[in-house]
Design brief:
The protein is about 0% helix and about 45% strand. With about 325 residues, it is an all-beta fold. The chain has two domains: about 1-190, Methylamine Dehydrogenase, Chain H (7 Propeller), CATH 2.130.10; about 190-325, Methylamine Dehydrogenase, Chain H (7 Propeller). The two termini are about 20 Å apart. Keywords: Repeat. It comes from Pycnococcus provasolii.
């Protein structure tokens, strides 16, 4: 595992805190472990080993490192989070974490002011809690937004909980939820991929349809109007791009999505990458000519990658990454 960037809270896990690291450095503290997955949050980091163990480091003021206390200090070297089961995935929000195991169990810990842990109350948790409301389901993926969480089950049902003032949960109202709530509009459509942004959510169904909902102040939902999306609505991705403000050409099937704080990304079955939302700092990878208030209101293909097959995509607060086939 290599880490770099801001390190004021030890989120690089190098054994020290302070100035950031501009060059990737190998982490010496996990040398004996084979890391298979990593996740980065606002001020903390998590890594999963091939044995299904979770190691975390960084800020712990809300118990987000899951080590059993709320010490305001930092953890500068990776520490194992004790979870019963083989962890296969982890996601980090502003100050909370979600993890799911190979047998479909969902665990959460950290800040819980808005109910983003899904355990039925608003109290922060300093150690992993099983989300018992979903114990009859098998969780296969999850995503932590700024203050909300979304979960996909093996049956393809989508659940949301936590902050909902901007309709992030897609349930039709703006009341926070402390327990997982099924997203009724997508019930029965079999969700296969999900992403949680700052205050918006994206999902892909089995037939390749892309749905978005939540805050839309910078067109992060991929819709021309700027009103928030109270429930999931379909966003077309087409081969012909946008002409006269309309998507034209053949409909493309989405396979995966990523959400930053104010922008969104989607990969289609043919390996194309689409981007929309706030385009300041070059986060979309497309020219932002004519974009209202520095935003693209509809999905635009990232033309600089048109001859590449995109395999994986990730979105940070205002930057993006893509892995393409060699």
């Amino acid at each position: 595992m290599f880490t770099w960037g801001a390190n004021a809270w030890g989120q690089c896990g190098t054994g020290e805190s302070g100035d950031g690291h501009g060059i990737p450095a190998r982490n010496p503290w996990v040398g004996k472990h084979k890391i298979v997955r990593v996740a980065a949050g606002q001020f903390s980091t998590a890594a999963i080993t091939d044995a299904g163990e979770v190691y975390v480091f960084g800020l712990n003021d809300s118990g987000q490192l899951g080590k059993g206390d709320f010490s305001p200090g930092m953890v500068e070297v990776p520490q194992r989070v004790h979870i019963d089961g083989e962890v296969v995935g982890v996601s980090i929000g502003y100050a909370h974490m979600l993890a799911w195991t190979s047998d479909g169990k969902l665990l959460s810990w950290g800040r819980n002011f808005y109910g983003q842990l899904g355990v039925g109350d608003h109290r922060d948790k300093s150690s992993p809690q099983v989300v018992s409301y979903l114990q009859e389901e098998k969780v296969v993926s999850a995503a932590a937004g700024q203050f909300h969480s979304v979960v996909v089950t093996e049956r393809g049902e989508l659940y949301g909980f936590g902050y909902n003032r901007d309709y992030e949960l897609g349930v039709g109202d703006n009341m926070d939820r402390v327990l997982p709530q099924v997203v009724p509009t997508l019930s029965g459509k079999k969700v296969v991929a999900v992403a949680a942004g700052g205050y918006h959510t994206l999902a892909v169904t089995e037939d390749g349809s892309l749905y978005t909902w939540g805050l839309n102040n910078l067109h992060q939902l991929g819709r021309a109007e700027k009103s928030s999306g109270k429930v999931p609505s379909l966003v077309p991705l087409t081969s012909g791009g946008i002409v006269g403000g309309r998507q034209i050409g053949k409909r493309l099937k989405a396979t995966q999505v990523a959400a930053g704080t104010w922008h969104s990304l989607a990969v289609t079955q043919d390996g194309s990458l689409f981007a929309w939302g706030r385009c300041e700092h070059g986060a979309l990878g497309v020219p932002c000519d004519g974009g209202e208030n520095g935003a693209m209101s509809q999905p635009h293909r990232v033309e600089s990658l048109k001859d590449k097959k995109v395999l994986m995509v990730a979105a940070g607060a205002a930057h993006s990454h893509a892995v393409v086939a060699a």
